[in-house]
Amino acid sequence: MTALIAQRMQECLDACLRCLKACETCASACLTEPEIDMLRECIRLDRDCADVCALTAQLLMRGSELYAHAARLCAEACARCAEECEQHGRHHQHCQVCAEACRACEAACRAVAA
Amino acid sequence: MTALIAQRMQECLDACLRCLKACETCASACLTEPEIDMLRECIRLDRDCADVCALTAQLLMRGSELYAHAARLCAEACARCAEECEQHGRHHQHCQVCAEACRACEAACRAVAA
Amino acid sequence: MTALIAQRMQECLDACLRCLKACETCASACLTEPEIDMLRECIRLDRDCADVCALTAQLLMRGSELYAHAARLCAEACARCAEECEQHGRHHQHCQVCAEACRACEAACRAVAA
Amino acid sequence: MTALIAQRMQECLDACLRCLKACETCASACLTEPEIDMLRECIRLDRDCADVCALTAQLLMRGSELYAHAARLCAEACARCAEECEQHGRHHQHCQVCAEACRACEAACRAVAA
User: Fold this and answer.
1) Are residues D66 and C59, on separate chains, in Cβ contact within 8 Å?
2) How far does the CA of residue D73 sit from the closest CA of chain B (Å)?
3) In chain A, which residues have their Cβ closer than 8 Å to the Cβ of D20?
4) Which residue, D48, D12, D56, is CA-closest to D27?
5) CB C25 to CB B61 under 8 A?
6) Distance of CA A76 to the CA centre of its chain
7) Residue A1 has pLDDT above 80, yes or no
8) 3 state SS for B3-18
9) What is the domain extent for residue A55?
10) Which of A37, A52, B7, B67 is 20 to 30 A from D78 in CA distance terms?
11) Torsion, CA B15, CA C18, CA C51, CA B113, rounded to 10
12) How far is it, in rounded angstroms, from Cα A68 to Cα A74?
């Protein structure tokens, strides 16, 4: 493994863990918002994204040969979650934070999946 | 969702759970075999495949829109694990069982990913 | 391992997988209900219970020595989720199904944790 | 929630993620060691500990009310993994690192479980 690939894997791992935390935080916060009716998709996508980030992080930690394939799935999960969270970012700080973590993770995943 | 897609998702879910169990059983059994030295790859791939099957099953159960993307990753994990287990199937019953569960899961995943 | 313990572990594994599916189904259905405002706790507890059931099932499949400790946590998760779902069971079929799966899983977990 | 509890939960989360990474790294490294025959228990316990740490971290991130119960299971998983890794720490750097991460996580989990 080249130094560049190792560095990208490390950055991807860090981004996955940050995104996992942002998604869990956002879902829990959405579940307490008065306007929960508007946040159904957000809760749903947060959860999917969190679980996909958790698996991708674990595969990266163990040096699994599947990491690039997992990163492709993870980029997809992050893109969908980001798109939804961005629509609520003006009203909810947790959605704004989550959208940014998702976009960063999406980019890091695409870099290792390439 | 058409009836055909719903049926394929159900078959994929069942196949993922069977494969998850076969991989966990195979990994644990490999860890007790006298010839563990030959089974390193098998233990490694069993674990990856089990974790990917677990996530794919959970996404299918919740009706996540990511299921087809997850199934693509899962088919890849199953194919690699099957290829390894098939090499040990003559000597170890658990590898034979696992290889068959992986091939069935790979096929079911490709059917929903299509 | 005695035959009785092996049988209880198998029953617990089956109950965990059924409960996992019921919780995932219930959470996804709650997220589409008009009265989502009443179902916040249900969604939250469904998710925790699903994830704990998934881990407990995986530990049972691999014959982990931690299974009794995990079953203790799982019984707790199931009891809390059942208590909440039971309050909505008259109005929502998915909550009724989930409550029953949680109670069955709680009992099966207590049997192996003993 | 008091500031002290919030701080302990944060420390526990950090310790779980560090332990998760150390366990995944240790298991993967053990699978490549010439003396794998001596490391069977280590691989097995690393895997259990990693999976329990991952769940505990995720429950802490989402502020689940189950966190103290999960931390109790996690402390048990860490203690068993640490005990095994400590026996190999003189020969394998990854076991030494893992044993220390497990002991730190065990302590952090006991602090939040109390």
Assistant:
1) no
2) 20
3) 58, 61
4) D48
5) yes
6) 9
7) no
8) HHHHHHHHHHHHHHHH
9) 3-113
10) A52
11) 30
12) 10
CATH number for the domain that contains residue C96: 1.20.1270.360
Query: What's the ipTM?
Result: 0.96
| B36-50: pLDDT as tens digits | 999 999 999 999 999
C95 three-class SS: helix
**Span between the terminal Cα atoms of chain C, in Å:** 15
CA distance C68 to C105: 14
Task: Choose the closest CB to C36 out of A28, A37, A47.
Answer: A37
Of all residues in chain B, the one with the smallest CA distance to C23 is: B62
| Secondary structure letter of residue D91 according to DSSP | T
Secondary structure (3-state) at A63:
coil
- Helices (runs of H) and strands (runs of E) counted in chain C: 4, 0
Q: How many domains does chain D have?
A: 1
Reported residue count of chain C is 114
Residue of A nearest to B61 (CA): A48
Tokens of B2: 């058409």
Distance CA(A76)–CA(B56), nearest Å, equals 14
Distance from CA of C21 to the nearest CA of B (A): 6
Give the chain D residue nearest B35 (alpha carbons).
D37
Q: What's the pLDDT score for residue B55?
A: 98
| Cβ pair D10, D69 in contact under 8 A | no
* Region label for A97, one of left (φ > 0), alpha (ψ between -120 and 50) or beta (otherwise): alpha
Chain position carrying tokens 């658990």: B94
Name the residue among B88, B107, B84, B108 with its Cα closest to residue B96.
B88
Phi first, then psi, for residue C89 (nearest 5°) are -65, -25
Task: Encode pLDDT of C1-20 as tens digits.
Answer: 799 999 999 999 999 999 99
Is A45 within 8 Å of A81 (Cβ atoms)? yes
Contact between C73 and D76 using a beta-carbon 8 Å cutoff: no
| C69 min Cα distance to partner chain D (Å) | 6
Concatenate the DSSP letters of all residues of C59-86 into one string.
HHHTT-TTHHHHHHHHHHHHHHHHHHHH
Q: In chain D, which residues have pLDDT < 70?
A: none
Interface of D with A (CB under 8 A): 17, 20-21, 24-25, 27-28, 50, 54, 58, 61-63
